[in-house]
Amino acid sequence: MAPDRRKMIVEAATKSFSLFGFKATTMDQVAKLANVGKGTIYTFFKNKEELFEEIISTLVKEMIAEADAVIQPALPFTENVHRALYRLLEFRSQHQLMIKLVQEEKEMGTLAVTEMLQHVENEIIVYLKQKIETAIMKGAIPAVNTEITSFLLLKMYISLVYDWERNHEPLSSNQIAEIMKGFLLKGLQKGE
Question: What are the coiled-coil residue ranges (predicted)?
């Protein structure tokens, strides 16, 4: 059985981006890691940016699957939002590629990385928006502007998980859940 060259290239590029970042990764490195000729890469991807997009697209799918895995229909909407956001940010903070990309954006401001991280954030907001729309249709929460609410949920959660820790003791998962319920989700609850 012939090796799946495309898959080998994507895996090698993921490894290279995780180790060296987007800017420092070259197609030569990817070819060497994949054990293919550089020309082989170009039969599947027209440039490094397209290869990067493929990897990020797969990463987003993995993140969504992780979030869906923790949602339990029997739990209140607010608890499921917390569980999904916690899992998404946990994935982001433990996945080597995401760690490297966030670091590269902070240190170098690489435009392609900034755009891809924005894409990841946009996909998370779309995911949250769909969950909020479903909750509204089921009557679990009142009608709200789903896009603004999704944006605020994500930004508030990121602030509580990451920004807070710069100058304070880290918050526990339960503390974050209570703060989210108290400040933002309380207005979305229906008779809870």
Answer: none
CA torsion sign, 158 to 161 to 164 to 167? negative
Q: What's the start-to-end Cα distance of the chain, in Å?
A: 57
pLDDT tens profile 58-108:
999 999 999 999 999 898 888 888 888 888 878 877 788 888 888 889 899
User: Helical H runs in 5-142?
Assistant: 5-24, 27-34, 38-44, 48-70, 77-94, 96-108, 111-137
pLDDT tens by residue, 133-166 = 998 998 888 888 999 989 988 888 888 877 888 8
Residues in the chain: 192
Could you give the domains of the chain? 1-46 (1.10.10.60), 56-188 (1.10.357.10)
Instruction: Give the separation between CA 72 and CA 84, rounded to whole angstroms.
Output: 10
In angstroms, the CA 58 to CA 119 distance is 12
Cα–Cα distance measured from residue 152 to residue 121, given in angstroms and rounded to the nearest whole number:
12
Residue 64, classed as helix, strand or coil, is: helix
From CA 103, how far away is CA 114, in angstroms rounded? 11
How far is the C-alpha of 79 from the C-alpha of 86, rounded, in Å?
A: 10
With a cut of 70, say whether residue 190 has pLDDT above it: no
